[in-house]
Amino acid sequence: MATIHQFVTGAMPGNAIYNEALIMQQALRSWGLRSDIFAERIHPGLQKDVVLYSQYHPQAEDVLLFHYSLGSALSDYLLALPQKLLLRYHNVTPPHFLVGANPWLRTGAAKGRHDLPLFANRTALALADSSFNEQDLVAAGFPQTAVLPLVQPDELFHIQPDSALLNQLSDGRTNLLFVGRIAPNKRQEDLLKTLYFYRQIDPTARLHLVGSEDGAGGYGRFLRTFAQEVGLEAQVQFSGHVSLTQLAAYYRTASVYICLSEHEGFCQPLVESMRFELPIIAYASTAVPGTLGGTGILIQQKHYPVLAELIHLLVTDRAMRESIIAGQTERAAAFATDKLLAEFEGWMTAVLNN
Amino acid sequence: MNLDELIQLDETRLDKTAVLQQIEQNLAKRQFNHPTSFPTFQLQADGLANNTLSAELRQTLAQLNEQVGQLWLDPQLPPAHTITQQFSNWLKRPFHQLVVFYVNKLGEQQNEINDQMRHILRRLIAEIDRPDHPTTS
Question: Is the CB of residue B101 less than 8 Å away from at least one CB of chain A?
Fold first, then answer.
């Protein structure tokens, strides 16, 4: 039986890279292949599903699919193995964005950036999850690259939202939403600045920062101090890590999704917002324009009064809101799980036949 | 500010000119209260300007830079050469991994504290190292 094992740095519930590995594993197994997931860091809740990479017993004919997002002992280990290697490139946050955040992440990011070219000649195929990410691979000298957008499970879009949270958030106030871990590259402080201006138009507005603070280091504390200093501490909610049902409730009750991040390799919450029919305003950085594909509203500079006016239009102008949502809904079809898994199957078949 | 360059939207579905006009009108009538400045997050480590530090102190700082954030345990079980040892490791492994996971969680918090201390130390040294600082001779 042919084997494609996957390796991820961290296996944590709700993590987009782990979610992708899981859905790929299910697909690989359904196609009759043997496939396990190995990781360097495993959440206790996932110990039955994921194996420590040090317990992997290499077999000559194995194909290894490495989800690359950080440099670590795992990347050194895989680099030294002779098996056929495939790289799934999720991008590596430039380390300068992580100064003041978690030192482990920062060191891993620096190593990840530094080591990427070392994989170029070791890799049979490198699959980037966006065209923006593919540019990194080409620059690093990878001979065979392709783009396969991030594959994510559909469960979030069919699940019943957390009813208590749904009621709590449906109180008539305007909810602005951002989903993503608390991290300096995601520039959550710029969302606070936007809220500061937008509340001068709509004093009921509040901002939900939905995402884990693991690894945020001093940045999470900075954001809270920021909110206090500009008088927004009661209007900004830091949710921390949330369950799928809670996440669905945030999407269902939000008025506008706003992303002012300065570094994204793909930005899955944009796709989620499209699927939840939530109009998007985003700063045109890195992979964001590619993921939006001409839909939503892109801004080239962070001009906060203009951002506030744009939010105001999306909240009050029904026709404009519906036009934006219609475009986004069409765009979301490009990221349908079945379609992406069919593309993935094509790539894996080609690798196994070569 | 050129709104046309600043904002991109799907012009096959929306009248961009009308949207921009609406924004301009709203901006003109609105009196936004601007703060003098917003707090900023210190992204870059402070550089040491004056080179008055001893080589030894520079070396110590460089070592600290390399070591901070290295608090991390890899799960380790004894090598298993017999079936009994393999079975024993199989039994121990989940508990072992559980302990290591939470110890590393603590380690990560300690890493962050260490990183903060290193940052403060660098700032203090940079301050002392300034040419106009009274202690700099």
Answer: yes
